[in-house]
Amino acid sequence: MDVFEAMETCRAIRFFKKDPVPQEMIDKIMYAATRAPSPGNTQGWDFIVVTDQEKRTQLADGIAAVMRPAVAAATEQFGGADAIDPVQKRMLDGALNLAIHLADVPVHLLVCGKAIYPPNAPSETFVWSALYPAAQNILVAARALGLGTCMTTYQQTCEPLIREVLNIPEDVHIACYLPLGWPDINFGPLARQPVENFVHNDGWQGDLRG
Ligand SMILES: Cc1cc2nc3c(=O)[nH]c(=O)nc-3n(C[C@H](O)[C@H](O)[C@H](O)COP(=O)(O)O)c2cc1C
Fold first, then answer.
1. Which parts of the chain have pLDDT scores under 70?
2. Which residues touch 192 (CB under 8 Å, ≥6 apart)?
3. Ligand 1 contacts CB of residue 142 (under 6 A)
């Protein structure tokens, strides 16, 4: 698949089939992740690939316990179930579905890393500089293979539990938590504003968003 087609159809997937993902595909996605740029090419990333059912269930239970009430609260913030904008409603319905069925998503991927750059004064800021490009490569590579993912910050819901279940040391930061599997919903096209709303030619031209 052309990389532009992969990017423009790389919708956040929150509905998954239970079917396993072949190891060769996981390997290919990890290869893509490790081709990302990083500060000083330090490659300060580690990827935790969770396929073990017992661990996925433990993680999913902890995450769902926080996500279920969080999605309900978000629905209220957007005006309640009857008043909510359809796009927001679709996203929240998806978020709730993902939280409820997370244990069944065949692969849980955590993008992690230690502060290692700059070498003389490692800074947390540069951890995210390395990990987010790697995560984006994962999203696009998965899409190109017909697999779905959703960027999430689920690590923030129950970080101590996640660290305990996966034995993640304290000095390893977790950037994002990516459920990965076969989509049970269509890919893209993405809902994005026109490119003209964002691109300033030859200098800042004021707010372009009309
Ligand atoms: C840093 C980051 C954190 C996100 N966290 C979550 C999350 O915790 N749960 C979730 O369902 N989606 C999460 N998303 C996905 C966004 O909601 C999604 O990309 C956005 O709504 C656009 O949807 P689309 O990519 O399908 O067009 C996150 C995205 C980013 C970039």
1. none
2. none
3. no
